[in-house]
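TL;DR need structure tokens for one chain.
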Amino acid sequence: MEKVIIVGSGCAGLTAAIYAGRANLSPLVLEGRQPGGQLSTTTLVENFPGFPDGIDGPELILNMHRQAEKFGARFSYAEVSDFDVSNKFIRVKADDEWLETQALIIASGASARYLNLEDEAKLIGHGLTSCATCDGAFYKNVPVAVVGGGDSAAEESLFLTRFASKVYLIHRRDKMRASKIMADRVFANKKIEPIWNTVVTKYVADEKGEMRAVMMRNVKTNQERELAVAAVFVAIGHDPNTKAYRGKLETDPDGYLIARNLAESKHPGVFIAGDVADRVYKQAVTAAGSGCAAAMDAERYLSELER
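>> reply
TL;DR here they are.
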């Protein structure tokens, strides 16, 4: 019987592990198949407090991992595939083994949708990203592309105009799906050039493995052409990693877990942290803050159980 199990090892999960470890709860962290979450694929983080010169995403995660271990957190690469609260204790199925715990912190994050093109994995963090707020400042005075047509793509495009010399908005349809106010802002910005009825078919890297261009195809004419860009920002949505909990915990229509008072789920002893519930901010620092809240709530919950 575990006191606390934490699902996920990104900023939210590791911060929860640090706080739970310092509370002498000896948390078990189930890291899953992508330890470190989305930060493990980010080359440089410049907006996390305390690092004026920035820090590599994997290095930040490694430091947090070490800090959690220092306070007694334990780690397993197991991935959660099922969840059960029908009995007295909370159970999670990790790599075909059911584990019981008194408290559970779900920090399994969300996965950005990409285009599933050749060499995509190699280019993530090397000119291919899903977060303009995270990476936009690295591309000053160079052309970039945004793929998508909804509010997220509009927001990314507008944000990138602060840095890029040109922002190409590539969309497979002939008009945006974004709200009228966001679309109007895009059309009013001279730095943004929409490319309609077009899909990206290939990424083109330079000799250093960095993004150099994209190949595009017009879906109506089938004409292909190359577009030189230093980065591609894919803004076609995220998928929360909540498959194991759907139908058992509250989710919104897109599958994001619903948290009350920042970290509480509807079930006693189950707490939520990070991008698994955050469809708005999706930043390392907000994930870390919610991880702190979840661990503190779990500690209070366990204290009440002992009374």
